[in-house]
Predict the structure of Tetratricopeptide repeat protein.
Amino acid sequence: MAHQNDSFIREVNDELRSEQVKAVWLRFGGILAMLAILIVIGTIGKVAYDYWHETSASASGDEFLAALTLAKDNKTDEALAAFDKLEADGYGAYPVLAQMRAATLKAQKGDTAAAVTAFTEISKNEAIVQPMRDAARIRAAYLLVDTGSYAQVAAEAEPLAVDGNGLRSSAREALGLAAYKAGDKAKAKEWFQQIVDDTQAPRGLANRARMLLDVMASTQ
């Protein structure tokens, strides 16, 4: 008899739970179904975005490598066209990388003015990360050593020639070279000496600075 009572109680409980579930579904079923649909749509959207992100980055990377190959093969005009397309349509960091590489190609072609303009545009673009902008300023400064005045080089390099900046040694070298070219040996020595005195200066830059200091000392 006890066993039968237990079975009867379980059946009653199961029936009550079933009725409760039905009541909940009748009241909230539409909302629950909508939530389930939204979760599915969100999952599909995430998968689709990840696929688009990966394939877009991969496609831009392939285009960038193809343009680099053209440049390596001295197909400069074709490479510039490829970089221009990537700059306009590329994904992620590739448009900026393409712009930087295109500017370098212009300098190699002898169009220094166009190259300086391109690097300056990059350095002033606040949408680009600061390290890339600083690298563009340095490239413009080095190009201006040969084609511009000390003031033009200083406008690009002096903001980076401060303690704590990762590119300070390169900036000081550009300033020293520009001062030397302008005939201001005293100022050139100051910039080169700052490189030599900086214990964190790259070895190659420090060695060049010492060599130039030695050259200037021997010509006094």
Q: What stands out?
A: Confidence is low (pLDDT under 50) at residues 1-5, 39-45. The two ends are 120 Å apart (CA to CA). The chain has nine helices and no strands.
